[in-house]
Amino acid sequence: MIKINRNVTPGSYSLAEIFDGLIEVPILSKVFKTKKELDDVFSKTRVIVEESDHYMYVKNDDASIIIGLEHLKNSDSKILYLDIIHELVHVMQQRKGLDLYDKSFAYVDRPTEIEAYEIAVREAKNLGMNKKEILDYLFVEWITPEEHKRLASHVGIS
After folding, report:
1. Residues 49-61 as b or e (16 or more Cβ within 10 Å = b)
2. Which conformational region is residue 128 in: left (phi greater than 0), alpha (psi within -120 to 50 degrees), or beta?
3. Are 42 and 15 in contact (CB under 8 A)?
4. For residue 25, which phi and psi values (nearest 5 degrees)?
5. Please, which residues bridge with residue 65 across strands?
6. DSSP 8-state symbol, 68
7. Alpha-carbon distance 100 to 8, whole Å?
8. Owning domain of residue 93
């Protein structure tokens, strides 16, 4: 796996400053079609660490990745790894001009979320995570149990 730098203060960083070795993970060659595109993403994408209680998200306007300091400092390494893979899918989508937060869909039915979770779930399986661990990963506080089931179904976890 990668080395995660948790000893940071709020501020702006490169991807490599927070996620050392991330550029080398094989799943990213499935997200970004060429090494040139992947290198471009790593050279241009900013990671902004904020003193807040959120997890991670991508800003729709400039594709910067926002990470809550508490999440970065305290979350399990596997979760942080899957989250950054998920968010890099959103970076790719934003670069294609997609609206990451299309309100015409519920969160769990939004095509951009489904694609990002599908790739994160594929990587979770590659890490050897079991079904329960993956289902736990898919649960976020802002969705209902029914929406959780729908999201799991969308990404092939029954």
Report:
1. beeeeebbbbeee
2. left
3. yes
4. -70, 135
5. 47, 58
6. E
7. 27
8. 3-154
Is the separation of the CB atoms in 21 and 40 below 8 Å? Answer: no
At 144, which amino acid appears? T
Which sign does the torsion angle of CA 59, 79, 82, 22 carry? positive
Look up residue 104 and give its two tokens.
């015409």
At 70, which amino acid appears?
A: E
pLDDT score at 125: 96
Bridge partner residues of 66 (DSSP):
48, 57
Over residues 92-104, the pLDDT tens digits come to 999 999 999 999 9
Place of tokens 């649960």: 139
Residue 114, Cα to own-chain centre: how many angstroms?
12
Count structural domains, the chain: 1
At position 31, the amino acid (one-letter code) is V
The first and second tokens of residue 73, run together, are 């400092």
pLDDT digits (tens, 9 = 90+) for 105-132: 999 999 999 999 999 999 999 999 999 9
